[in-house]
Amino acid sequence: MTAVANPLVSPLKKLTISKGTKSPSPGSRLRSKSPVDTG
């Protein structure tokens, strides 16, 4: 699953970072982190 998560994580992280800097939302950050931690 790591192999599939890696390509998905990189773009997701970029999106979360760009969104986080523009509008801080703990809900989205927590959701984006949960799959990253499991992967």
- What is the β-strand count? 0
How would you describe the shape? elongated
Q: Can you give the helix content as a percent range? A: over 70%
Count of DSSP-assigned helices: 2
The stretches of 5 or more residues where confidence is low (pLDDT under 50) are none
Helix-strand pattern: HH
How does the helix and strand content classify structurally? mainly alpha
Average of per-residue pLDDT values: 58
Region (Disordered): 1-39
Polypeptide structure, described:
- The chain has 39 residues and is an all-alpha fold.
- Helices cover 87% and strands 0% of the residues.
- The longest helix is centred in the first third of the chain and has 21 residues, at 2-22.
- The protein starts with a helix and ends with a helix.
Question: Any chance you could write out the topology, listing elements then pairs?
Answer:
Layout: H1 2-22, H2 26-38
